[in-house]
Write a structure and sequence with these properties.
About 35% of the residues lie in helices and about 15% in strands. By secondary structure, the chain is of the alpha/beta class. The strands form three sheets. The protein has a seven-stranded mixed beta sheet, with helices on both faces. The chain has a two-stranded antiparallel sheet with strand order 4-5. The chain has a single domain, classed as Zn-dependent exopeptidases (Aminopeptidase, 3-Layer(aba) Sandwich), CATH 3.40.630. The mean pLDDT is about 95. The protein is built from six helices and eleven strands. The chain binds zinc ion. The site of zinc ion (ZN) has 3 residues, from loops.
């Protein structure tokens, strides 16, 4: 099979290194598709919806990384190619029906095609996160992992009340710190493992790079209508960076 990515399309992953205590990850940063996959049989209107990416998440992740001087790993291709926040053994890694939309180009994928997408998109992404965390550990630097996502305000006809939600593994120290920091603002509806939780199989990154390594982790989900303009993204990045910083202060004091 031919390469998934043409030489002028790569790399799959954007990496920035910082000097601070956090690693910020954004698996659903982009809606870009490799040219070799065409449009996967989807209409343009579908390729710009949340089924292709997490609108606003990349900008918030970049702003957080800037403020916190964090390491940053962003996926440059759409989750429709392969979902970097899924165990690749799960059917949802190669989504065939996204919310209510069939993805024709993902129907009946043969193993060789799954392997081609994994090799070009999924594997380099997780290798980049591993490399950064390994290097930090070898240097004796503490690490905490933040993954940045956004969710759609209405899903399958249901309105979602939360402004922000956090997904945790069983190791909840970072998530608890985020919950208590955000709940200080009484105007916010804050979800604890809502609207998503590990039961929805969305915990791959925080489990692999967080829990399994003994690195504190939290997955942040901001409702995407709040990130529609620059003012919103800037305000959320500021609010979240203060909350993240409070966890760092707590860890230092411990
Ligand atoms: Zn996401």
């Amino acid at each position: 099979m031919d390469a998934l990515l043409a030489p002028d399309e790569g790399p799959a992953v954007e990496v920035r290194e910082g000097g601070g205590g956090f690693v910020v990850v954004c698996e659903h940063a982009s809606r870009r598709l490799p040219k070799s996959l065409g449009d996967l049989g989807l209409a343009v209107a579908d390729l710009t919806r949340h089924i292709a990416w997490d609108p606003g998440a990349a900008d918030v992740a970049r702003r957080l990384a800037g403020t916190l001087d964090a390491d940053l790993v962003l996926q440059r291709f759409s989750r429709l190619v392969v979902d970097c926040n899924r165990d690749p053994a799960l059917p949802s890694a190669f989504v065939t029906v996204a919310e209510d939309t069939t993805v024709p180009g993902n129907l009946d994928l043969v193993d060789a095609e799954k392997a081609r997408r994994m090799e070009a998109i999924w594997t380099p992404f997780h290798a980049a996160v591993d490399r950064l965390l390994d290097r930090r550990r070898e240097a004796g630097r503490p690490s905490a992992l933040v993954t940045v996502h956004s969710f759609t305000p209405v899903f399958r006809g249901e309105s979602r009340p939360w402004h922000v939600g956090f997904v945790s593994t069983e190791e909840r120290s970072f998530t608890e710190a985020m919950l208590s920091a955000m709940r200080r603002d009484r105007s916010l509806v804050v979800g604890d493992n809502q609207p998503y939780s590990a039961k929805d199989d969305v915990d791959y990154t925080i489990r692999r790079h967080g829990r399994d390594r003994g690195v504190p982790s939290v997955m942040i989900e901001v409702r995407n209508d709040l990130l529609a303009d620059e003012a919103g993204r800037s305000a959320w990045a500021e609010r979240l960076s203060l909350a993240i910083g409070s966890f760092e202060a707590e860890a230092r004091a411990a």
